[in-house]
Amino acid sequence: MVTALADERVVSPYDELMAYEYLYAMDGTSRGKMSRVLAENGTLPTRAMAAIEGLMPDESKYGEVREYVDSRIGGFSVLVEGTPQFPRSLRAQKDPLPVFYYRGDLSLVESRCVSVVGTRHPSERGALAARRIARALADRDITVVAGLAAGIDTEAMTQAISVGGSVIGVIGTPIDRYYPKENRALQDEVAAKHLLISQVPIYRYDHQPFNTQRFYFSERNVTMAALSEATIIVEAGETSGTRTQARACIDQGKKLVFLPGVVESVTWARAFLEKGAKVASSVTEAMEMVV
What's the first-to-final CA gap in the chain, in angstroms? Predict the structure, then answer.
């Protein structure tokens, strides 16, 4: 649960959460823009809000945002840049965001992590490959990071959990929303026994046009890349959100591994080979590349 800190000399997660939500509500059109607004105005949301709007924000709007977010507090926790627990891996990413909503075992962000991602509509071969990779990672005590999407993400997460491995789910909705709905039970299990993460603002998400909400799904791939020391892309399409994660891996200097079918069928994947991505012909080879 979010707790306000009385000492003004330390970072207050509650105050930073509300300022973050307010800034996103007023001018947060994208992760990149929000990150730049924060970077140019003091990094912390409260400092940025003061720099942009002075000592007094739009009281009516701030009150509306605060009341809305307050009504959802209780089922999740928040970390803010400037606190010791804030994940080190998120500090170095491109377009960093200073607020981190989570449920579950926060210690998993300090474990060895590898993302296993891919299409929502995998072939039988792709689904099998995702399960085999997840099992191999779990056997090596490596946490599987995935986006809780249907398809490859679900295959990897359920397999890792079934063999006693650890998982981190990074979602493209607010921390207390579910998508897809059929993964509700899986998301609740991840939150209760593993770790569930979101950087999606609660107020803005619920008050923006439905057709613009989809952009958060590709943006969460940036967070996934940052949390992971490597990403394995099992299957993908030309318009897949995994392309965003591939680009983030290269930007962040992380290992990027494709299975052969990705390179054979997707033109953008071939371009990443020139930037350092590798192709693994087997699960064993993939493990050698990422471990």
Answer: 35
Strand ranges, E, within 2-112: 77-80, 99-104
- Cβ-proximal residues to 222 (8 Å cutoff; 6+ apart), any chain: 31, 93, 94, 95, 244, 245, 248
- Domain stops at, among 71, 103, 135: 103
d(CA 287, CA 84): 32
* Encoded tokens for 286: 């993939």
Where residue 240 sits, what CATH number does that domain have? 3.40.50.450
Phi-psi region of 118 (alpha: psi -120 to 50; beta: other; left: phi over 0): left
- Same-domain check for residues 120 and 140: yes
> Which has the closest alpha carbon to 247: 227, 215, 277?
277
Q: Say if pTM beats, i.e. exceeds, 0.85.
A: yes
Q: Which of the residue ranges 34-38, 85-89, 246-250 has the most confident prediction, judged by mean pLDDT? A: 246-250
Distance CA 107, CA 216 (A): 25
The mean pLDDT value for 22-51 works out to 88
Provide the domain count of the chain: 2
